[in-house]
Specification:
Radius of gyration: 19 Å
Helix content: over 70%
Number of helices: 13
Main location: membrane
Subcellular location: Cell membrane
Order of helices and strands: HHHHHHHHHHHHH
InterPro entries: Diverse_Substrate_Transporter, EamA_dom, EmrE-like
Shape: globular
Strand content: under 5%
Membrane topology: Multi-pass membrane protein
Keywords: Cell membrane, Membrane, Transmembrane, Transmembrane helix
Largest sheet: none
Number of strands: 0
Structural class: mainly alpha
Distance between the termini: 29 Å
Number of domains: 1
């Protein structure tokens, strides 16, 4: 697979996730966030299980214990991201959630420096400042304007960054992207459902009321989109993957306007534009500079 094809897969994943924000928001009219997270990922696990068995049968070597643990770790990062995002949607809009989640594009290279001394291009730092300015405008010109849901979504974005980083370190090394995807789904499904049994009221009627959203989030946002992410990341960099996946912010705003009639004031739209610009700059500027340097090299 070429890098262009991989990036197109990631773009498709972003579009599917953008629509998924609508499903996540409407589901909580009838069901708790932990139960929704648990059920959607149990559905996702079942969807990809046949492909896992096929992949395993063709694998040259079995996975080592350390590789399984790495897969479980990715699942924990995903659970942190999705759970924070899901609770955030209780008190923020689909549009805000989509754009604030997209901050992982800036956070991914920053956390790469902190954790693994992987220094990004210098443009990342002004891009981070641009993104923070966008958050400021999105909050209405004051950080106190950010709701609890907005802050939870930002925490979820940090977990998203960690998930992207650790997928990049695991997917290419093992050559088992579907197994990695299924493992992270199973971790989220088991933890989410177990926590819901302890902390949330559960009824068959509530589950039936959110069945469409659960199936969409499980089959498409989960089983399909996250698997596309893992497959695509085998052939591109973590930073480049983050920029294409960040298209979910644009799609979330689009679908939020179409299906939920959400609208933003001018200042907030300016903030969204700055956040999106920071996402694009993080990847586009380094790529242009690399091409120029390549042309100048004798």
């Amino acid at each position: 697979m070429t890098r262009v094809q991989a990036n197109l897969l990631l773009l498709l994943a972003g579009a599917i996730w953008g629509m998924g924000f609508v499903a996540q928001a409407t589901a909580m009219d009838t069901i708790g966030p932990l139960l929704f997270v648990g059920l959607r990922f149990l559905v996702a696990t079942l969807c990809v299980l046949p492909f896992v068995l096929r992949e395993s049968s063709k694998a040259a070597l079995p996975l080592k214990r350390t590789q399984w643990l790495a897969f479980v770790w990715v699942g924990l990062m995903l659970f942190g991201a999705i759970t924070a995002q899901q609770f955030g949607l209780l008190t923020t809009s689909v549009t805000n959630s989509g754009f604030l989640t997209g901050l992982y594009v800036v956070l991914t290279p920053i956390l790469g420096v902190v954790l693994f001394r992987q220094f990004p291009h210098v443009v990342v730092w002004p891009a981070a400042l641009c993104a923070l300015t966008g958050i400021f405008l999105l909050s209405g010109g004051t950080l106190t304007g950010l709701s609890t849901g907005d802050w939870l979504t930002i925490i979820g974005a940090a977990f998203c960054s960690l998930q992207v980083i650790f997928i990049a370190r695991s997917a290419a090394q093992t050559g088992r992207p579907i197994t990695l995807a299924a493992t992270q789904f199973a971790v989220c499904g088991i933890i989410g459902t177990s926590a819901a049994l302890v902390f949330e009221p559960i009824s068959v009627q509530a589950i039936n009321g959110a069945a469409k959203e659960i199936l969409y989030a499980g089959i498409f946002s989960g089983g399909l989109a996250f698997t596309l992410q893992v497959v695509g990341q085998r052939y591109t960099t973590a930073s480049q993957a983050a920029i294409f996946l960040s298209s979910e912010a644009v799609f979330a705003a689009l679908f939020g306007a179409i299906f939920l009639h959400e609208r933003l004031p001018s200042a907030a739209l300016g903030g969204c534009a700055l956040i999106l610009a920071s996402m694009l700059v993080v990847e586009i500027v380094p790529a242009v500079w690399r091409r120029k340097a390549a042309r100048l090299t004798p």
